[in-house]
Design goal:
This protein is mostly beta strands. 6% of the residues lie in helices and 33% in strands. The chain is built from one helix and nine strands.
Length: 123
């Protein structure tokens, strides 16, 4: 995990998503169909966020995880009043949204994450 002064520089698209809370187009992200073993970290500060063992194919077009590394993700009410936004607990970069009650996995949780918000680190 990097200190603020050492955060990774962001491309304009990454800044649109991570800083300005944008969304990438579905089925376009690098990690949507990714299936290697490792850890997904925040693209900006490299804080560990998700284990590949918690990733699943929800068919929604974005990487989906049914659990986060404890303490790594904050949930905050989305301004739209209907969804819950997820952000990196370290740098507060936008990751996506979390949904419950869809019954995709036994944990009944889906973190819908933008590929541009994360990086993969092989185990």
């Amino acid at each position: 995990m990097k200190e603020k002064k050492d955060w990774n520089p962001l491309t304009p698209d990454e800044e649109r998503i991570i800083v300005r809370k944008g969304t990438e187009y579905p089925f376009t992200g690098q990690y949507n169909k990714w299936d290697e073993q490792g850890v997904f970290v925040c693209r900006r500060c490299e804080a560990p966020l998700y284990r590949s063992s918690d990733k699943f194919d929800s068919g929604c077009g974005w990487p989906s995880f049914d659990d986060e590394i404890p303490g790594s993700v904050k949930r905050i009410p989305d301004p739209d009043g209907r969804r819950v936004e997820i952000i990196c607990a370290n740098c507060e970069g936008h990751l996506g949204h979390v949904f419950t009650g869809e019954h995709f996995t036994p944990k009944d949780t889906r973190h819908c994450v933008n590929s541009l918000s994360i990086l993969f680190k092989k185990e």
